[in-house]
Amino acid sequence: MRLRRLDMPQAHRLLRLLDQDCYAPGLNFVFGQAMAGGRDAVVALPRLRQEFYGLPEDEMLFQERAIKEAVHELGHTYGLGHCPNPRCVMHFSNSLADTDIKGATFCEKCRAELNLGN
Prior knowledge:
27% of the residues lie in helices and 11% in strands.
């Protein structure tokens, strides 16, 4: 599925939340996607929910995962790549275990790249 560009010239960034499973070439699925240095980012919500895996609903865990993936994808729009630090929000999530382990914030190295300071 290709997303059409929204006509919102005043927007600095656009984050789309999709309640649909998403895929990218060479990967079996993605939690989200964004172009480095671009404006648009997307987060696919289904695999972030416990119910997707036949487990009981956990709304707080779902929200935590969605926030992490949103910050991660928006980080890409600001030019950040994947970080080797497994606690950094910019660490690549190959599975929900990766998402659950990482934090919702940038590590020192990524903060410096964004010029956010400490």
